[in-house]
Amino acid sequence: MHGIHHEFTNRELLKGLQSEEQLRGLEELLDFEIDRFSRLELFKGKRRLDFGSVPGKVEFASLFDEVRSEVDVFMGVSGIQAPNVNYYNKVPGQVFHNAVAASLFLTGLYDYALKLVLLNSDSLDSFLSRQFVNVMMMATGFFYFYKYHSRGFYWQPPADYTYSPRFEVVNAPKDRRANLLPLAGHEYTHHVQKKLGLVSYEGNEGMGAFMEGTAIGVQRHLSEWYAEKHGNESYLYIVVKESTYNLSRAYNWLCQALGREPKKSLSLTDELPGRRTEYHAFGDSFFYLLEKRRGKGVYAEMFASLTAPDQG
Length: 312
Ligand SMILES: [Zn+2]
Prior knowledge:
mainly alpha, three-stranded mixed sheet, 10 helices, binds zinc ion
């Protein structure tokens, strides 16, 4: 199998981050990234960033082909079979869930009201037994609705970029192209990883930090590649924003691990946006630092080492 895997497990990557040298590198990198992000955020506030339109389905498919070939070159892989790519189709889900909740509640309420009118006032006992089902229906409908909307009230379920290794499908929300293309490239990278045999994600021996760190390296490359190609910095925005959060999160953790007081200006938040995890934070920090020291070629080197035959 792939003899190099043990160097890039979650445990080894975390160990690799825990040094004074890495802390100094991280401070410098985070400072740089916060600067870039504040500048982009300022431009965005002044409406000087043009994120472009949401590509239609057909256009997205052809743009995704372009993303794939750039990622293949960047990672030095070839012959990777294309995954399926989809926009989330949010409508059926949201209609279904809200309809189930509403019909439970309304049927219960309707029957309740009907019985209330028709009921001859015999006893409380019979009132309760006749209305029990209706009350339960209303309660179930209410809780169904509450549960479905409990992460904030929305008519559309939250959608994030995902890759399903099982079905080999990349799912993307209908997003404007400056966000869509780098982030779809991130999910495509997970597809390449799967095709190269990387499947174990969590735990000490898992490769989650490696998988996210390299996928974020790819998304950063794509964002810079598109920004230059179109002379449009909006391609950088979402990627710089994510890395700013990731590096800051790892910085707080590393300061704690080394018993240092974090600098206020670098210690932004412990929150990560969306479904981002510690694997994103640590992986991004590890590989971004490596990239700064050794150049963008490190990603292709990593993937080459994964596909190399076992040396024993
Ligand atoms: Zn990912």
